[in-house]
C-alpha cells in the first residue's frame, strides 16, 4: 500500500465520507480513531479502512445511533478531523426531499448549486477567534460560486450510470435549519425558486470543506417529495427511513465505485486545491 509520503506511524486516509452510520460496515480492516480539534469534538470517531483500493475515513455525520441533530452537528470539527488524518477529497451522501414531482423517492441527484437557508451555524474557520495553540485566523473570503468539486461530481455520475442508476446531473440543494421539515408554504417557495431538493446538512459542510481546500461532492438521495409538491400528510420521518433503507445498498455501491474513480490526491488539479491562494490564513491547516 502506498502511503504517499504520509507518516506511516499515524492513521491515514485520503478520501473522506460523511454519511449515515450504515456506511462503515463496508470498509475493510477498520481502525477507529478518536480525533480532537481546535473547534471541539467531531460527531464521532473516524473509521479508517480500505475501500475500492483506496484509504477511506468514514465519519457518521449524526454520530453513532443518530444522536446529533442537523443543527447541532459540529461541522467545523468534522471537516478539520478528516483533514487531520490526510483526507483531501470528501463525498457527502445525504437524504433530501424532492422539490419537483419528477424527482421522486429513489432519485439520486448530484447537485451543482447550493442555497443556504440555515440560521445559526458556524460556517467559517476564519472568524477571528484565537485557537488553543495561540494562533488567530485572519479574515478570508473563499470563492464559492461553484460549491462542489467538478471532478468529484464526474466520478459520482459515472459510478451511478455504471450501476444502471441514472442520476440527475445538477440542480440546486437548498439547506434549511431543521430539525423540523418544511411547511407547505416554505416548500412551495423553494419549488417556485426553481430549486431541486431540500436538505438539512449540506451546509455548512460544503463551504467548510472549501475553506480547508478539500474537494467536496454531495450525493443527494431523494427520500420523499417535500410538503409543497404533494397533497398528502406532508413529509414523515417513517417514510424517509423506509425509502432510505430501500436505497442504501445501491447508494453504498455507487459510493464505493465513485471512491475508486476519484483522482489520486497528488493528481488533484481542480480549483478546490487553490481556494486559499492569495490569502494568509493565519492558522496552520491540519
Ligand atoms: Zn476538487
From TrEMBL:
Binding annotation for phosphate: 21, 61-62, 201
SUPFAM superfamilies given in the database record: Purine and uridine phosphorylases
Domain Nucleoside phosphorylase, first and last residues per copy: 14-259
Pathway this chain belongs to: Purine metabolism; purine nucleoside salvage
Keyword terms: Glycosyltransferase, Purine salvage, Transferase
Pfam families: PNP_UDP_1
EC number(s) on file: 2.4.2.1
The protein's enzyme class: transferase
More about this protein: Although this enzyme belongs to the family of MTA phosphorylases based on sequence homology, it lacks several conserved amino acids in the substrate binding pocket that confer specificity towards MTA.
Protein name per Swiss-Prot or TrEMBL: Purine nucleoside phosphorylase
Organism per entry: Streptomyces solicathayae
Biological classification of the source: Bacteria, Bacillati, Actinomycetota, Actinomycetes, Kitasatosporales
Amino acid at each position: 500500500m502506498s502511503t504517499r509520503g504520509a507518516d506511516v506511524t499515524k492513521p491515514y486516509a485520503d478520501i473522506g465520507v460523511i454519511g449515515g452510520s450504515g456506511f462503515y460496515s463496508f470498509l475493510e480492516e477498520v481502525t477507529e480513531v478518536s480525533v480532537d480539534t481546535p473547534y471541539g469534538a467531531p460527531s464521532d470517531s473516524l473509521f479508517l479502512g480500505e475501500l475500492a483500493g483506496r484509504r477511506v475515513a468514514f465519519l457518521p455525520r449524526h454520530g453513532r445511533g443518530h444522536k446529533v441533530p442537523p443543527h447541532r452537528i459540529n461541522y467545523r470539527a468534522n471537516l478539520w478531523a478528516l483533514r487531520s488524518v490526510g483526507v483531501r477529497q470528501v463525498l457527502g451522501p445525504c437524504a433530501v426531499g424532492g422539490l419537483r414531482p419528477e424527482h421522486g423517492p429513489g432519485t439520486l441527484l448530484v447537485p451543482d448549486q447550493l442555497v443556504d437557508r440555515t440560521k445559526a451555524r458556524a460556517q467559517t474557520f476564519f472568524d477571528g477567534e484565537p485557537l488553543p495553540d495561540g494562533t488567530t485566523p485572519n479574515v478570508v473570503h473563499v470563492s464559492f460560486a461553484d460549491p462542489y468539486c467538478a471532478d468529484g461530481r464526474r466520478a459520482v455520475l459515472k459510478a451511478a450510470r455504471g450501476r444502471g442508476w441514472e442520476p440527475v446531473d445538477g440542480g440546486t440543494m437548498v439547506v434549511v435549519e431543521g430539525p423540523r421539515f418544511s411547511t407547505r408554504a416554505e416548500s412551495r417557495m423553494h419549488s417556485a425558486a426553481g430549486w431541486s431538493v431540500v436538505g438539512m446538512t449540506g451546509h455548512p459542510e460544503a463551504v467548510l470543506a472549501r475553506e480547508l481546500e478539500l474537494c467536496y461532492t454531495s450525493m443527494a438521495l431523494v427520500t420523499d417529495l417535500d410538503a409543497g409538491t404533494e397533497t398528502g400528510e406532508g413529509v414523515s420521518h417513517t417514510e424517509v427511513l423506509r425509502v432510505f433503507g430501500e436505497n442504501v445498498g445501491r447508494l453504498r455501491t455507487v459510493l464505493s465505485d465513485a471512491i475508486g474513480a476519484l483522482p489520486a490526491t497528488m493528481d488533484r488539479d481542480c480549483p478546490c486545491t487553490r481556494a486559499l491562494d492569495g490569502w494568509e490564513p493565519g492558522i496552520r491547516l491540519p
